[in-house]
Amino acid sequence: MAEPKYIPRNAIVVDRYQELNNFTRAFATGHLRFLMVVGPAGTGKSHTMCAAMDGRAAWIDGNATAFGVYFAAFMHRDKPIVLDDVDALYRDGSGVRLLKQLCQSEPTRMLGWYSDPQYLERRGVPTTFMTSSPVAIIANRWSTVNEDVAALEDRGHMLVFDPTPIEIHRQAAMCARACCRLRFRAGGGHQFGLRRG
């Protein structure tokens, strides 16, 4: 595959699923506090992270606001957080400020949200709280739009996942074989006109 258009400094370029699996498992087992995975859409970044986390993370995806992430971080404090396809978050000033707090390199960080404290109070959410949540960010694109975003890149491990077309096909074939084996075992093989002998 062609080199990604933008590779942030300090990024590790990964082109094999096994390498991506190694990093996502390291995050899932607590060896990495902050992991960013950036790469083309449809290459299985989210699927790989989801498999590694096995339901043990607060998964925030899509159209998340900075306030929504703050609220989720409070509700899931000290548990892993995965921010998936929240590209607008790092382009928003409030989002970047929150990400800088949440992705600090210290084991325990203080997060604060100081606008509209009455709204927070009515929902039982404090204006500040401590958390030790590890954080993973998954994105299709990443650009260093300013120095604050650049500061995020230096706080953890940043991967640029750029598999070759051959690697993508190899992975798809492996997944298809695993899916067929699972269906065969679960259904006695009858879905494919096969019978147990």
Helix percent band? 25-40%
- Number of discrete helical segments: 7
In CATH's first tier, which class applies?
Alpha Beta
Count of DSSP strands: 8
Distance, first to last CA? 45 Å
- Could you please say which CATH topology applies here? Rossmann fold
What's the number of structural domains? 1
- Full CATH superfamily name: P-loop containing nucleotide triphosphate hydrolases
Low-confidence runs of at least 5 consecutive residues? 182-197
Q: What portion of residues belong to β-strands? A: 15-25%
CATH architecture: 3-Layer(aba) Sandwich
The overall pLDDT average reads 84
* Structure classification: alpha/beta
**What is the rounded Rg?**
19 Å
Spatial strand sequence of the major β-sheet: 1-8-2-7-4-3
Give an account of the 3D structure:
- With 197 residues, the chain is an alpha/beta fold.
- It has one domain: Rossmann fold (3-Layer(aba) Sandwich), CATH 3.40.50.300.
- Helix content is 39%, strand content 17%.
- The chain has 7 helices and 8 strands; from the N terminus they run βαβαβαβαβαββαβα.
- It has helices spanning 17-28, 45-53, 66-75, 93-102, 117-122, 147-153, 165-187, and strands spanning 12-14, 34-38, 58-61, 81-84, 109-112, 128-131, 135-139, 157-161.
- The strands form 2 sheets. The chain has a 6-stranded parallel beta sheet, sandwiched between helices. The chain has a two-stranded antiparallel ribbon with strand order 5-6.
- Helix 3 links the parallel strand 3 and strand 4.
- Helix 1 (17-28) packs parallel to helix 2 (45-53).
- The protein starts with 11 loop residues before the first strand and ends in a 10-residue tail after the last helix.
- Residues 182-197 have low confidence and may be disordered.
